[in-house]
Design brief:
Strands 3-2-1-4-5-6-12 form a 7-stranded parallel β-sheet, sandwiched between helices. It has a 5-stranded mixed β-sheet with strand order 8-9-7-10-11. The chain folds into 2 domains: 148 residues, Rossmann fold (3-Layer(aba) Sandwich), CATH 3.40.50; 107 residues, 2-Layer Sandwich (Dihydrodipicolinate Reductase, domain 2). It is of the alpha/beta class and 268 residues long. Helices cover 36% and strands 24% of the residues.
Length: 268
């Protein structure tokens, strides 16, 4: 049976890519698209909103009905919108695939509450390559220990509104997990002025913004005499969309709970 998927925020760069990937899938179909209240696409057919022929896919700023009849929602929007959507997915028992970044602890707690009623798959990055990289980073961090300083450098397009990126934080969590520490206790997110010597065991973050960069990430393990650099470069947003679609399909039949891409890929 084809899985009906709603794409939240379909007019954005990522939203359009998600719509394209879902619509082209053999195992799923686009059940609807949501947009914020008052958006010019609201109330229109998706194809017509994109400047083409009608497709029969509605765009709505009132997601209750369209989510109620779907099996999954893919959501790369904003924290407040994602939290609101999580409540609707919980009520509909629909899989909620969350690629939204910039979530606060309170936002994540709200998603955890929703996961008591429906599967929630959340990841700072949904590409296969990045999730494999997190596993490697965890293993390298565990093997090397604090004699190697960890610095994470991420580069994104000029329009990205949050920093560090969700992927950078994923990689930081992996490095901290490999060392058996909490990232919140060791993260160093900014250096300016007379900061003093680097704190042993710290995990540093650096955000670069410019141009149309889809997403580049490097994890540097630096010690006296050598550096190990692990990285990933994304050149096309479709890698994230394909991963999100895979998560939505994987979530069908799963018990309510919080999952991530390592679960989807069978790497946990």
């Amino acid at each position: 049976m084809s899985v009906g998927i709603v794409v939240a925020g379909g007019s954005g760069r990522m939203g359009r890519m998600l719509c394209e990937v879902v619509a082209g899938s053999d195992g799923a179909h686009l059940a609807g698209v949501t947009e914020r209240a008052g958006h010019p696409w609201a109330g229109r057919d998706l194809g017509e909103a994109l400047g083409g022929a009608a497709t029969g896919v509605p765009v709505t700023d009132d997601p209750i009905e369209v989510v109620r009849h779907a099996q999954a929602v893919i959501d790369f929007t904003a924290p407040a919108a994602t939290v609101a959507m999580s409540e609707l997915c919980a009520q509909a028992r629909a899989v909620h695939v969350v690629g939204t970044t910039g979530l606060s602890e309170d936002d994540i707690a709200a998603l955890e509450r929703a996961a008591r009623h429906a599967p929630v798959v959340r990841a700072g990055n949904m590409s296969l390559g990045v999730n494999l990289l997190t596993q490697v980073v965890r293993q390298v961090a565990a093997a090397l220990g604090e004699d190697y300083d960890v610095e994470i450098v991420e580069t994104h397009h000029r329009h990205k509104v949050d920093a560090p990126s969700g992927t950078a934080l994923m990689l930081g969590e992996a490095a901290a997990g490999g060392r058996g520490v909490a990232l919140a206790d060791v993260a160093d997110r900014g250096r300016d002025g007379m900061t003093g010597a680097r704190r042993r065991g710290a995990i540093g973050f650096h955000a670069i913004r410019g141009g149309d960069v889809v997403g580049d990430h490097e994890v540097i393990f630096a010690a006296d005499g050598e550096r190990i650099v692990l990285g990933h470069k994304a050149s096309d947003r479709s890698v994230f969309a394909r991963g999100a679609l895979r998560a939505a399909l994987w979530g069908q039949g799963q018990k309510p709970g919080s999952y991530d891409m390592l679960d989807v890929l069978g790497l946990r």
